[in-house]
Amino acid sequence: MKDYPLAIRHISGSTSDVLYNASVYKDSAGKVAGVFAAARDITERKQAEEARYRLASIVEYSEDAVIGKTVDGIILSWNPGAEKLYGYSENEVLGKPVSILIRLIIMTKCHRSLKK
Predict the structure, then answer these.
(1) Which residues have a Cβ under 8 Å from the Cβ of 68 and sit 6 or more positions away?
(2) What is the pLDDT of residues 37-88, one digit of tens each?
(3) In this structure, how many other beta carbons lie within 10 angstroms of the beta carbon of residue 81?
(4) Distance from CA of residue 70 to its chain's centroid?
(5) Of 36, 49, 57, 115, which residue is the least packed, with the fewest Cβ within 10 Å?
(6) Distance between terminal CA atoms of the chain?
(7) E strands present in the chain
(8) What Cα–Cα distance (Å) separates residue 105 from each residue in 45, 53, 93, 102?
């Protein structure tokens, strides 16, 4: 058995999330000679995964534009709020420089002033 998820209850009543591993060892005749079992505590890892999931959900469902970029200014992520605000889908802007947003803002302002 490898990486079987379990929750272990401590004598105090608290629980820890673990991945359980077990191996059966047999002798040359094929008889079970022993078992090795280990449980690795993954409580902190699970808490970090849950925090990342919550943050990702906030970004995904936010009506605000949330844009991820590299230190060089290349767009890595683009949420639906950004799509709504700028009018471009994620596929249209991923991998492009964030400086395109300045052009989009200027074009939008020009377009609005022409409508007046």
Answers:
(1) 75, 76, 77, 78
(2) 999 999 999 999 999 999 999 988 889 999 999 999 999 999 999 999 888 8
(3) 17
(4) 17
(5) 115
(6) 70
(7) 4-9, 15-26, 32-41, 67-69, 75-78
(8) 41, 31, 14, 5
